[in-house]
Amino acid sequence: MICVEYLRCTVLIVLTMNICAQKTKSDTMLNAKNVNGPLQNIQKTQSIKQETSLNSNDKNIMELNAYNSVTLLPNRSVCGLLSDEERIFGGESTDIDEFPWLARIKYVLDSGKEVYACAGSLITQNYVLTAAHCVVNLTIKEVRLGDWNTETETDCQGRVCSDPAVDVSVSQVKIFPEYRKSDTFKGDVALLRLQKPIYYSDFVRPICLPITDDTIRQDNSSKSIYWTAGWGKTENENKANIKQKLAISAVPIGDCRNKQPIITDKTAPFVICAGGVAGKDTCVGDSGGSLVKQMTINKTTNWFLVGVTSYGYRFCGSEGRPGLYARITPLLHWILNNIED
Ligand SMILES: *[C@@H]1O[C@H](CO)[C@@H](O)[C@H](O)[C@H]1NC(C)=O
Ligand SMILES: *[C@@H]1O[C@H](CO)[C@@H](O)[C@H](O)[C@H]1NC(C)=O
Ligand SMILES: *[C@@H]1O[C@H](CO)[C@@H](O)[C@H](O)[C@H]1NC(C)=O
Ligand SMILES: *[C@@H]1O[C@H](CO)[C@@H](O)[C@H](O)[C@H]1NC(C)=O
User: Fold this and answer.
1) How many Å apart are CA 320 and CA 260, to the nearest integer?
2) What start and end residues bound the annotated signal peptide (predicted)?
3) Is the pTM of this model over 0.90?
4) How far apart are the C-alpha atoms of 210 and 217, rounded to whole Å?
């Protein structure tokens, strides 16, 4: 029996401890409103000033660079760095310093129990970007950065040991205002403001955002190879202790819509569709985690955040069903409008 579930179940699992263990093979969305949880720190944000546009035209890019907050973003000698250019990808476990922008989110359940569920990406010293469905009606206790092996206090890979993980509480949650107003996963992103700024190290580093025309244009190439990473670990499962990584291929939106009819004309521009290989797909990674892509610009290669893990099958084995990721480029205006020093 294959339990086919959507990623949003990650949160449901930890909050209800069993819902997802039941077999549900319909395409009915499990709705987070079934989950009781106090609304915490959720600040309704102002409606976006600019209409977000997918057109990666120069006007759009000039507008992006007009935000003062652009200076808060790490530059390309800081963000999305490759720690070792000779590295060979292909293994399942990450090395200790790979995907250092990945954050784990810890929740407090109504019972008082504390559990990790979703992931997020560090984008500045003060902000983690995650999925909206990872914060709506949930109580976040804190965010953990710099984790690799979830079972050990001090993580070591061979002789390389990382600094202890950094736990930081969240002072403010901002949800993309159009999320779920009309369409389920449109703009499934939220910003978590951290209580204190994070200091970067080899093990805690931000991801680059694609705010230049060179990078925006690359975000939806149907030939893209993306990477996703995470622990995919929940209370009920004995999954990875060590951060896992997986390469997935872009799926052209037309093909994707045949397999994921939930995508509409309206939501298509807000989606990156990727994966769908049996036994792989979204088994690796957590809701709210990063979909990243390497881009080389002016001879320098960095990792860029192009999507946030949003919707897909939590339990795998369903060939040909790609995962859906909230696409970052149409949300950049909102992000830049909502981060502060
Ligand atoms: C959050 O909780 C409120 C109050 O219980 C409910 O009205 C709302 O629909 C919930 N939101 C979501 C997205 O489930
Ligand atoms: C990038 O940012 C770092 C840290 O803020 C700064 O030291 C460095 O000079 C910047 N590099 C460039 C090329 O702007
Ligand atoms: C990206 O998406 C836009 C809008 O859907 C489209 O016009 C453009 O051709 C796409 N670019 C690539 C490289 O696929
Ligand atoms: C790449 O280099 C050119 C020429 O120096 C410069 O105009 C452009 O801004 C650079 N692009 C980026 C993304 O740094």
Assistant:
1) 10
2) 1-26
3) no
4) 9
